[in-house]
Description:
Elements: E1 16-20, E2 23-27, E3 41-46, E4 57-61, E5 64-69, E6 82-91, E7 96-104, E8 107-112, E9 115-120, E10 128-136, E11 140-149, E12 154-162, E13 180-184, E14 189-193, E15 202-211, E16 218-219, E17 229-233, E18 240-249, E19 261-264, E20 277-281, E21 285-289, E22 299-305, E23 313-319, E24 323-326, E25 333-342, E26 348-350, E27 354-358, E28 364-370, E29 377-384, E30 390-397, E31 406-408, E32 414-418, E33 422-429, E34 437-445, E35 458-461, E36 475-479, E37 482-486, E38 495-503, E39 513-519, E40 524-528, E41 535-544, H1 550-554, H2 557-560, E42 562-567, E43 583-589, E44 595-601, E45 609-616, E46 621-624, E47 636-639, E48 646-655, E49 661-663, E50 667-671
Amino acid sequence: MNPASRTTAAAATAVVLATAGTLLTAVAPASAATSCASPVYQRQFYANTTFSGTPKKTDCDSAIDQNWGTGAPASGLPSNYFGVRWTVTRDFGSGGPFALAASGLDGIRVYLDGVRRIDLWKNTSTTVSKTANVTIPSGKHTLRVDYVNWTGGAKVKFGYTPRTSATVDNVKPLAPAGVSVAYDKATSKARLTWAKNKEMDLAGYRVYQRAEDSGVWHLVSGDVFNAGSFTHALPPTGAVYYYEVRAVDKAGNESAGSADQLVTTVDRTPPETPVLTATDHPLLGVDLLWDNVDEGGLRFDTYRAASPLGEWTKIGAGTGGSGILDGTAPFGKTSYYRVTVTDPAGNSVQSDILAFARPLPKPYLDNAGTNADETGVELRWTMAKHAPTQYRVYRQERFGGSTDWVQVICEPSDVSPVGDSYARYTCTDHSAVPQTEYWYRVTSVGDDGTESQPSQVIGAGLYDRTPPPAVTGLHHTSTEYGTVLEWDASPASDLASYRVWRATSARDTSTHELIATVPAGTTRYVDVQVPDDQNWVYFVDAMDTANNSLYTVSGSPADEVADVSVNEFYLTPNSAPPNTAAWTLSGKTDGTGKAALSWTCAVGCATNGFHVYRWDRATEQYVRLTDVPLAADARGYTDPATPTATTSYYVISAVAADGSEAFSGLAPVVVPPSGT
């Protein structure tokens, strides 16, 4: 306690703060200070009980707990009828439930922010006391305690304490302020510091952490601790974390989190050691693969050496991916590979050394056949550009010959690059016997004479691929029974036949129609059909015994095959009776060169008989061929006087009971000359 009459001058030079439970107390100087640092009270002494006039003395008091007995409380004051006023303004943090306890002899009044909370205001000879439970809002508030002594002994005591029972206090503390973090790269430790909370019922703090890509906070400080800093060790992986500090009061209430504090750890963790594998692609190179594709931002440097001891040559560098293709790996030798993986922080790790024996490449034989000048069998194969350039070609007869593979002289005479990776080789086996089928295969040969596995087998032979020359002398004769084509005999010694094509347009191959195949030795063909002023283009193509022809080479006879343009006669009658009969007429030649007519009917077929008519071009009239009507059940008629080497047009009439006739449509019949 600080009785005013016992304060020394030396004590007035400083205020010393100490912790007593959860309350801050102070030893204040007894001199007449005009202000006191919270939570120390400012104490004022009055020589009256109405607190009027100027205080006789003002000083600081760390606690209200005085017993002056019957004496005066301070020099210059009376022993009776005096008043003492204590005032303090302090920060109550988040506030909450508090107990205000007062006791003493004579009058005591307690005010919170000017509102009276305790009133024990009467002259007593015995000690009176009272406790008021109040809820103090957050922030700063002012307490004032007024004490008066009228007569007799003088003593007073007052205190305010938080109520910390969990059943009473449900007010969360304020979140800690002034939080900052410092990260030590050398030790990979994060040290958090913060300002002490203003809570009077503070139990301590908890520190939480979450990863940058997570919304879940994890307690890293353990249970509640009462300190203003916390140090946390982190793995040096380059990961990013957030921290926050939360205050906890004695009732167990936890505050909201402080402002998040970002920590980016130093990365000293090397990437995962890659596992290197290799696969040979003869046309492309050695395909090197590793298994670090899930880690981002990695750099891969790939090296190759002829010995596990070096010298190492970098053959690839880059970020991302899961491997590279070594297109220059030597064939027929063992190469040694390693890959170094470096992360963005500069940490690196090296794979184990991989020994890979690359076999000699097997050629890819993709084509074989008679060469352009038909002097041999041409073979083609594809290889990697860095493959050996020496090859051996083997052959065996395909049907009925020896099953032994025999090496033949077939040196590559043409090497054509294909892009950046391939080369195509060509050689010709001039020892092939014409019209003989062979199997072929190819091997590559290393510097030491060793051979690769053989290529796939492909069949080929030396065959005639030259078509006969174009037909000459092609001309035509238009007749009343069709078109007569004639041409010169082909000089080809291996001629097999002629093919005759017909089209409505020389250029439109969709109209081309193969109408006849004429044996060798025949140079004439008659296209027997109704001449009706149609325009036709005819083609005649010579074909040899190997099925070669200009048409099969060009795919279109219009460019290289003999052709002739034909305009047929116009023999269609210039008039015809109205087609009113229910009967449909058709005609053809019989085996003796006579016109054989037939007719059919579906509905409306009642008739008493039929007459047959033929068009006479000389008189331009229809001549009736029947003297009397044919029977009603007649369904055909053969013209015994059918004209030959011409086309005749016929109609029939259905004869009614009254003799009237209903006519069919025209039916042409072509009768070529005998032997055509």
